[in-house]
């Protein structure tokens, strides 16, 4: 059984549900380390002080915040203890919101919540209520000496939680979301895009998608282990710049050629009706 990341009670109103949190996802990466080219020994990052011109011992290391270029406010362990939240075994739901009101950009790390002993019925009541109302809870709790705000949602007959990015953590990018005033988009271009989207639409199957770079990296490492010669991957050809309408029509045509018979006929007949109109 996996180790729980947190154990306590999920509360809202007077209801208290004992739960355990388990990490719901993690990155799968093939790790590459820094080696000494001469002897292939793994290197470790030195703690080097450019002012004293020497490597320092970890006992000499303190923490500080850079408030100006090259100037730091020293933050000691005692300072951190004063602001570190005390461990708490309660996760309190502060509010409920509609699921479609929450942009996924605000969701960070995911956790599975399991009911603890004697919490099964209350857990199931909350899960069904969230599922039937299409709502999510917003809760606050402390884990690993940090405060977290999380979304609590019903998923696949259980409760899943996502830590929240706060509004000030969502970056603003100049130009994002702005449409140039002189940009002209033709209705028929949008209609063709609609048809292309429809032709590519399918049920979401997460197992269909893979980290292809990690697959190639593992293949490379295995080949190196066995002394095989690694063949160079050919570079993709640059796409030719063509007219927007032609690009959409060609994309749609290629997709229709590969589509099953009924769907191909359905999309083609729709395109014919719109062209006639």
Secondary structure layout:
Layout: E1 6-12, E2 15-23, E3 48-49, E4 54-55, E5 63-68, E6 71-75, H1 77-83, E7 90-98, E8 107-115, H2 120-133, E9 135-143, E10 146-155, E11 158-164, H3 187-200, H4 212-225, H5 244-258, H6 261-276
Parallel strand pairs: 1-7
Antiparallel strand pairs: 1-2, 2-8, 3-4, 5-6, 7-9, 8-11, 9-10, 10-11
Helix pairs in contact: 3-5, 3-6
What are its keywords?
Ku70, Chain: A, Domain 2, extended, seven-stranded mixed barrel, alpha+beta
In short:
With 277 residues, the protein is an alpha+beta fold. The protein has 6 helices and 11 strands.
Write structural notes for this entry:
This protein starts with 5 loop residues before the first strand and ends with a helix. The protein is α+β, with helices and mostly antiparallel strands and 277 residues long. The chain has six helices and eleven strands. The relative contact order is 0.11. It has helices at 77-83, 120-133, 187-200, 212-225, 244-258, 261-276; strands spanning 6-12, 15-23, 48-49, 54-55, 63-68, 71-75, 90-98, 107-115, 135-143, 146-155, 158-164. The longest helix is centred in the last third of the chain and has 16 residues, at 261-276. Strands 1-2-8-11-10-9-7 form a seven-stranded mixed β-barrel. Strands 3-4 form a two-stranded antiparallel sheet. Strands 5-6 form a two-stranded antiparallel sheet. Among the domains are: 6-25 and 87-168, Ku70, Chain: A, Domain 2 (Beta Barrel), CATH 2.40.290; 184-196 and 242-277.
Q: Which sequence of strands runs across the widest sheet? A: 1-2-8-11-10-9-7
Q: What is the CATH level 1 assignment of the domain at 6-25 and 87-168?
A: Mainly Beta
Q: Could you estimate the helical fraction of the residues in percent?
A: 25-40%
* Coarse shape: extended
Class inferred from helices and paired strands: alpha+beta
> Count the helices. How many?
6
Report the strand count.
11
What about the largest sheet? Answer: 7 strands, mixed, barrel
Q: Report, as a whole number of angstroms, the end-to-end distance.
A: 62 Å
How large is the radius of gyration? 27 Å
CATH topology value of the domain at 6-25 and 87-168 = Ku70, Chain: A, Domain 2
């Amino acid at each position: 059984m996996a180790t729980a990341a947190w154990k306590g009670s999920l509360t809202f109103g007077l209801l208290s549900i004992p739960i355990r949190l388990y990490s719901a996802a993690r990155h799968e990466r093939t790790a590459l380390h820094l080696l000494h080219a001469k002897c292939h020994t793994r290197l470790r990052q030195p703690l080097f002080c450019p002012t004293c011109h020497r490597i320092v011992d970890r006992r000499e290391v303190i923490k500080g915040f850079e408030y100006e270029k090259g100037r730091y406010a020293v933050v000691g362990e005692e300072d951190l203890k004063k602001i570190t939240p005390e461990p708490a075994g309660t996760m309190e739901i502060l509010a409920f919101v509609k699921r479609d009101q929450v942009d996924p950009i605000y969701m960070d790390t995911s956790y599975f919540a399991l009911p603890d002993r004697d919490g099964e019925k209350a857990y199931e009541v909350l899960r069904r209520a969230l599922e039937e109302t299409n709502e999510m809870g917003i809760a606050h709790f402390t884990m690993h000496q940090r405060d977290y705000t999380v979304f609590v949602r019903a998923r696949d007959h259980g409760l899943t939680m996502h830590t929240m990015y706060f509004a000030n953590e969502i970056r603003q990018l100049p130009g994002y979301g702005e449409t140039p005033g002189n940009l002209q988009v033709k209705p028929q271009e949008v209609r063709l895009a609609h048809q292309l989207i429809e032709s590519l639409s399918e049920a979401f199957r997460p197992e269909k998608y893979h980290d292809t770079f990690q697959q190639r990296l593992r293949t490379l490492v295995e080949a190196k282990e066995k002394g095989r010669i690694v063949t160079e991957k050919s570079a993709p050809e640059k796409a030719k710049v063509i007219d927007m309408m032609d690009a959409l029509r060609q994309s749609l045509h290629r997709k229709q050629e590969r589509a099953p018979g009924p769907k191909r006929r359905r999309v083609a007949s729709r395109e014919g009706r719109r062209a006639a109109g």
